[in-house]
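Lab notebook, bench 4. Still working through the backlog of constructs that have no structural model yet. Next entry is a single chain of 340 residues. Request: give me the structure tokens for it.
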Amino acid sequence: MSEAHPIEALKALEAEALAAISSTEDAHALEDVRIRYLGRKDGRISLILRGLGALPADERPAVGQEANRVKDVVNGALEERVRVLLSPRGATSEDLTLPARRPWKGGLHPVTQAVDEIWGIFRDLGFTRARGPEADTEWYNFVALNTPLDHPAADEQDTLYLLDSVLLRSHTSPVQMRTMERYDPPLRVIAPGWVYRRDTYDATHTPAFLQIEGLVVDEGVTFVDFKATLAEFARRYWGPGTRVRFRPSFFPFTEPSAEVDVKRVITREDGTTEETDWLEIMGAGMVDPAVLENAGYDSERYTGFAFGMGPGRIAMLKHHVDDLRTFFDDDVRFLSQFAS
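Model written out:
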């Protein structure tokens, strides 16, 4: 029987080496297999490579290419077998068909997202961010804002008092007064922060919640500026087709005052659109001259407007959430819907 052609011999050695590798049970036996087939001196595949010079010139390229391919395949099989033998589970490989256990994906809370989005819109409109203490005095929380201490809002049934005249602020409006005391006009500020009230914890109220206050003071600020600014905010936040309505209202620190409602345009999956009912999003108004004077401003020279909104309520409207408490339940299944 004639001797097998070198390429056929290489294919036979490949099958033989792979079978020997898969049957090894320890690293020492695997090393013996490596030497038997790939050893520099007497390795059976190495011997064929060293014998290329004795082949006819026209056969050398094909045999050399096949020998290198077989050598790479055997080396790869050796490396994989080493990994399996040295793994903690021994020769038993992991079942890669099992579903992966992925870590929880974190993200910003939906109310925090609402605060950031609202702040981003007003920042683009030229507003600066302002802050103030969460524990404040009756003067800043009530009196300076044209709210006498016999007003129902100042009653202990509604306000969380700490010591003497110190209390947990019931709105972010005290930041308005502190900012006006510190800076001269023109002012254009946004003040997001936590506020506290003696509210029952239910579907629409919590004793601690975020609020965003806005204030603009300058010469010649009119009700037209007030309406145009808030209408522009509503269109940027809810969409260009949003309609805005201003209903007369009353707040001690603004005159005239208004409740701001929006009517949104919702696009369905089939491309059709519909308008929502009117939704209240904030209270606002022109700053009362008495508040400007309490800050040391000349109310004959300066005018302004102020507004306040609850980002929690706005997040409820945007995401169609019916119960405010859902945002405080720490249910990862619910919160993960809003992770970006």
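Notes after review: The domain at 110-338 is CATH 3.30.930.10 (BirA Bifunctional Protein; domain 2). The chain has a mean pLDDT of 86. Flag for follow-up if needed.
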